[in-house]
Amino acid sequence: MDPIGTIYSPFKTLDNMPIQPKGASEIIGSVVVDQKYQEGLADLDGFSHIYLIYHFHRAQRIELKVIPFMDKVYRGIFSTRSPLRPNHIGLSIVELVKIEERELTVKGVDILDETPLLDIKPYIDAFDLVEQSSSGWVTAGSGAVAAKRSDSRFVS
Amino acid sequence: MDPIGTIYSPFKTLDNMPIQPKGASEIIGSVVVDQKYQEGLADLDGFSHIYLIYHFHRAQRIELKVIPFMDKVYRGIFSTRSPLRPNHIGLSIVELVKIEERELTVKGVDILDETPLLDIKPYIDAFDLVEQSSSGWVTAGSGAVAAKRSDSRFVS
User: Which of B4, B22, B133, B138 to mutate to test the interface with A (most CBs of A within 10 A)?
Assistant: First the structure.
């Protein structure tokens, strides 16, 4: 699996970065897709939101239990969005502001600067909207997502 | 990037498979996570929905423009969910029915049998719910998602 481009953001380190797009709703970033894949961006400009799938490139190890930013106790890694998961795959839903040639301007970026991009998918309401859900251990603290900031626990 | 498990479903071929979880809402499948990662499943059982990230293992080539199942004209690959994208990464949101040891029973499976699993993430309402969105070229035909079935165009 090779990167198809790079994600740029104002966040050079994990300290104080928003932990999710909802905490970064005004943060603008850009996504530059490699020239050889530019043709694949056709028709994407009609979508208001996109999934970015990327490599947590600063995650140097795997942990099966972590204390997430939203909690104070250890949780199974697959019940969290921590970078320390096997395969170090990240997923964010961001707002698509505009596309110019092979550069996308996106909003709601909770991603480190220079993160390698693996895939872009359109967010499709008819496929992706979950009308009712329960969010396990997160539910209690979820009101605090927007204000929550990360620290370096997952890279150091 | 190595598989962390395997997704099992009733679909042995792409012919006639639902094209998205919403078209497969009653289809039960299972996800078996490798034993060495079982500990990472702790706490996941409180979530009603999960993201499965997987390898479109039957996709043998990359195309930058495809005619999607939902349309009749060529569209840029990144504006579709077609398997022929670079890196062949698939993403589905499925309902989590139960977890027994390292086997998850899931509902809403639009995935081929024996698909290699790359990651599991919890669907977290506070992070992932998109209240208003526009879905570009899909909008016109999206009412038909549930009834739409695939064919072998992306593997043959």
Answer: B133
